[in-house]
Write a structure and sequence with these properties.
Blueprint (H helix, E strand, L loop, with lengths): L5 H9 L7 H7 L9 E6 L5 H12 L5 E6 L4 H13 L7 E4 L4 H6 L8 H8 L4 H6 L1 E2 L2 E2 L2 E7 L1 E5 H7 L9 H11 L2 E3 L6 H13 L5 E3 L8 E2 L4 H16 L11 H8 L4 E6 L3 H11 L5 H4 L1 E4 L14 E8 L6 H11 L2 H11 L12 H6 L3 H10 L9 H11 L11 H13 L6
Parallel strand pairs: 1-2, 1-3, 8-11
Antiparallel strand pairs: 3-13, 4-5, 6-13, 7-11, 7-12, 9-10
Helix pairs in contact: 8-9, 9-11, 10-11, 10-19, 19-20
Length: 436
């Protein structure tokens, strides 16, 4: 928690015995009386990319400040919990934080994020994909800095699609995929696990059908308006039920997450899969390590997320990480400057290639290194322009947990009833009439 005055001396003394506290000590103590301030950036686990970007931005500051990093837990929900606890106590050691977009409204509503200056907002949104801007916005105001943006593609085995007679150069529907996978006795990999991945799937289906999980008054828990019982909600539930009943999701559909799906897609029963771009570098790493034959990724194809309604553009999942500036830090001006540095097209292109996390800035997709490492980069960019954020509400955790409870297992979903059950549960939870 935040500490000042004499406690700063105590923390500095503790440095000798606890390397874990090093970044927090420097941040809370302002970097020392004689040196430049040290900004602490709380980062989610990756392959070292954010640490390198922090080093680059320290160099770019030319001695005016330094940027150090502190690692958050692996799970998104645990990252949120740790940050909320510290920020609720007005912790001044949090200068920058890597935030999962669904939690941004909650942090903004609680006053945990420093207001983004108008000139900074203009610069950090120029040339940025729309979904990343939307995911950083709350109540019509930019409240975080778009960093990297993720989306799911429809991955397919070219041999299977060809055998099924599907023209993958044109949009395909969920119905076509289910029928093709069933006819070819192949898998259609989706995330049916009772976890955040299931919420991602539900939201993408509802949005693709022309609706929204939350349709209005998202900031008012007692009067939230939900869109799960109308036609878009019914169509979304219909897709989930059809995947489950056709058996194409595999016997472990109710426990299948992104990692399980990609393992299945590397096997002999692979047909189609909805998943994030990490699928590609994983396959290449497998070939390099000798655990996967080159013929496997050679058979990979990719295209935009499937349509729920034929002829109506899909709204793929949007994910990624945006950078929030702590409201209680002593150097928010430097923190915004560091965030701009971290999210430059050059650094986002580096992060894309080195860590496999797609850029929010459009210019990064023209970088030769990106194009070489990710031949599907143009499709990722196109998908991000169509992608839809998950429900934006300060009560996202309650909404997501309620969806996971009512739509799981996928085989239990009923188009005429599940949407109403979810609506009733979400409403009761937000009104504090029920506990999750």
């Amino acid at each position: 928690m935040s500490e000042t005055g004499s406690s700063c001396l105590i923390r500095t003394t503790a440095l000798a015995v606890s390397l874990v506290l090093a970044a927090s000590v420097l941040a809370a103590c302002g970097g020392g009386a004689s040196g430049p301030p040290t900004l602490t950036w709380y980062i989610n686990p990756d392959s070292g990319g954010q640490v390198e970007i922090a080093r680059r931005c320290t160099a770019a500051a030319q001695g005016r400040y330094q940027v150090s990093t502190t690692l958050l837990p692996r799970e998104s929900s645990e990252q949120r919990q740790q940050l909320v606890r510290r920020l609720a106590a007005h912790d001044s050691s949090i200068d920058l934080m890597s935030l999962d977009p669904p939690y941004i409204p909650e942090f903004a509503e609680a006053g945990f994020l420093a207001p983004v200056p108008a000139d900074v907002a203009t610069r950090v949104t120029e040339g940025v994909v729309e979904s990343a801007v939307a995911g950083s916005t709350w109540k019509h105001q930019l409240v975080a800095v778009p960093f990297w943006a993720n989306t799911q593609l429809l991955w397919f085995r070219k041999s299977v699609a060809k055998a099924a007679g599907l023209d993958m150069t044109k949009p395909v529907t969920w119905r076509q995929l289910i029928d093709a996978a069933k006819a070819q006795h192949k898998l259609l990999g989706v995330q049916g696990i009772r976890a955040e991945a299931l919420t991602v799937w539900i939201n993408a289906l509802v949005e693709s059908a022309g609706g929204h999980i939350i349709t209005g008054r998202a900031e008012d828990p007692k009067h939230v308006q939900l869109g799960l019982t109308g036609e878009p909600g019914r169509l979304a539930a219909d897709v989930i039920r059809n995947v489950a009943r056709a058996g194409v999701g595999g016997p472990a559909l109710s426990t299948a997450g992104e990692d399980a799906n990609v393992i299945g897609f590397e096997g002999g029963n692979a047909g189609f899969m909805l998943n994030w771009p990490f699928v590609w570098p994983r396959a290449l790493s497998g070939v390099k390590a000798g655990t996967l034959k080159q013929s496997v990724p050679d058979d990979y194809g990719w295209t935009l997320y499937p349509q729920v309604i034929a002829g109506k553009d899909s709204r793929p999942p949007y994910g990624g990480i945006n950078i929030g500036i702590g409201a209680f830090g002593a150097h928010t001006d430097f923190a915004f400057e560091a965030a701009e540095c971290a999210t430059s097209a050059k650094n986002e292109a580096y992060y894309f290639v080195s860590n496999g996390n797609p850029a929010a800035r459009v210019a990064a997709y023209d970088d030769p290194a990106v194009v070489k490492a990710f031949p599907m980069a143009p499709v990722i960019r196109a998908s991000l322009e169509k992608a839809a954020p998950r429900p934006q509400t300060a009560y996202y955790s309650e909404v997501s947990s309620s969806l996971q409870r009512t739509y799981h297992p996928p085989g239990s979903v009923q188009p005429g009833r599940t949407g109403q059950r979810a609506t009733d549960l979400i409403t009761a939870v937000l009104r504090k009439e029920k506990l999750l």
